[in-house]
Write a structure and sequence with these properties.
The chain has 350 residues and is α+β, with helices and mostly antiparallel strands. It has seven helices and 17 strands.
């Protein structure tokens, strides 16, 4: 796990422009001969594009091919880690593999925007808390150079990153994503820390991104800002928002099967089946009256509960159910979809 000693602030200090920071990072990239870029997926077929990320992953042909590629990537990362041929912070590789195979995947549509100043809620609470110990964020965009061939509003590339609670500072998160140098094919796991901390100059709390000292120059400012913004928006929608979410329930025992496959060097299975639930609907069917049966093991989502007084309290994520009855990993999608207008909004409040 990255430690605070290995992290530096990437927010421009007073009087230093974003352009100056970008120039400094570019110089470092050239000095280290690093040309890492975030690994993305898409364009599996000539001219492929989709109106939303969710539409792409609801397309069986695209989804199956995408997850086969991701499964191969998991094995590649694991093999390179074994051979000490991948760069990352301590625990970064393990966190990324664990998140990709064992925890919920959350789609965040690039066309979706949360309320203005939503970040203030994190600053008010003084912390950034996840709905689960780890989540996988899936977002999308248009690959550079394809702007003229992709219809307006459509996307043709997809980015995955694993987000976990920062063990060194429970008030922050760590974002892990696969990066690759297209020149030599070398891969790494880039890590960005995001936390609520005091600005040393103004002494005001703010959300401050940090990167490991050893990874300066891995990503440019625009790439980091895109990942940070969408990660924060995803966490807001999963923990503060009162609206609806979409979830997926992959097949039972997927985690156990994947762990065995990874140990044997085989491609893990990744499922993605979306259904709709409301904020107050039970995550699993209730146990029949008079039965002592226990539901399948699953994570109960952590969220901020709002009270009529205006105060909030954190309802922590909890692992519940009986593992012997199988495991369920639920996946979510966040976006403005046409059918949203017909869904009743249910608040997480008392």
């Amino acid at each position: 796990m990255a430690t605070h000693k290995d992290k530096i602030n990437i927010i421009p200090t007073r009087g230093v422009s974003e352009e100056t920071w970008q120039k400094a990072i570019d110089i470092q990239r050239e000095k280290l001969n690093i040309n890492y870029h975030i690994v993305s997926f898409g364009r599996f077929a000539a001219g492929y594009h989709a109106p939303t990320v969710r539409d792409a992953f609801m397309d069986k042909q695209f989804r199956d091919k995408a997850f086969r590629v991701i499964g191969d990537q998991i094995n590649t990362v694991k093999i390179n880690k074994t051979k000490s041929k991948i760069e990352s912070v301590d625990g970064g590789v393990e966190a990324w593999i664990d998140g990709m195979t064992n925890f919920p995947k959350i789609i965040f549509e690039p066309s979706f925007y949360p309320p203005d100043n939503y970040e203030d809620l994190f600053i008010e609470e003084g912390k950034i808390l996840l709905p689960f110990p780890k989540i996988v964020m899936i977002t999308g965009g248009v690959r550079a150079g394809d702007e003229k061939v992709v219809p307006p509003g459509h996307i043709n590339e997809f980015v995955f990153c694993v987000i976990e609670q920062d063990a060194d500072d429970l008030k922050g998160i760590l974002v892990h994503l696969v990066v690759q140098n297209p020149t030599n094919g070398k891969i790494g796991i880039a890590t960005i820390c995001v936390c609520v901390s005091e600005n040393p100059e103004s002494h005001v709390l703010e959300i401050r991104p940090l990167i490991p000292q050893s990874q300066i120059g891995w990503l440019d400012v625009n790439e980091m800002q895109m990942v940070i913004s969408r990660a924060m928006e995803t966490i807001y929608m999963m923990t503060f928002h009162d609206g609806e979410v979409y979830m997926s329930a992959p097949t039972p025992r997927e985690i156990q099967v994947n762990q065995k496959k990874i140990r044997k060097g085989k491609t893990p299975l990744i499922e993605f089946k979306l259904i709709t639930v409301t904020g107050k609907k039970r995550e699993l069917p209730s146990v029949p009256h008079g039965s002592h049966a226990s539901p399948k093991q699953h994570w109960r989502r952590g969220h901020w509960r709002s009270y009529r007084s205006g105060k909030r309290s954190w309802v922590a994520p909890m692992l519940v159910g009986d593992e012997e009855n199988g495991k369920v990993v639920k996946d979510y999608a966040i976006g403005n979809y046409p059918e949203d207008a017909n869904i009743h909004s249910s608040k997480l409040s008392v």
